[in-house]
Amino acid sequence: LVLYEQNELQLARKPLESALTLNPKDSRTPLYLGLVSESLGETARAAELYRRAIQLEPDAAQPQVETCLIA
Predict the structure, then answer these.
(1) DSSP letter string over 19-31?
(2) In terms of Cα–Cα distance, which of 31, 25, 39 is closest to 64?
(3) Strand, coil or helix: what is 8?
């Protein structure tokens, strides 16, 4: 998250991809990885990740908002 906030998007991606593999049930990881992907212009991947976050935690507002913003 720190790397994302510092706009080090390529560096932020790798640990998030690892975290997604290590803990696939954590809804925050696909959300954060979606934010990174969206910032890199990968909107289809971001939307997929936001949907995954919503599936894991249906009541979470941020992934729903992010999905609407890129739709």
Answers:
(1) HHHH-TT-THHHH
(2) 31
(3) coil
Contacting residues for 58 by C-beta, under 8 A, at least 6 apart: none
Count other Cβ atoms within 10 Å, centred on residue 26: 15
Please give the model's pTM, rounded to 2 decimal places.
Answer: 0.90
**For residues 16 and 30, is the Cβ–Cβ distance under 8 A?**
no
Q: Residue 46 and residue 36: Cα distance in Å, rounded? A: 8
CB atoms within 10 A of CB 71: 8
Provide the CA 49 distance to its chain's centre, in angstroms.
5
CA 38 – CA 36 distance, rounded (Å): 5
pLDDT in tens, 2-48: 788 888 888 889 999 999 999 999 999 999 999 999 999 999 999 99
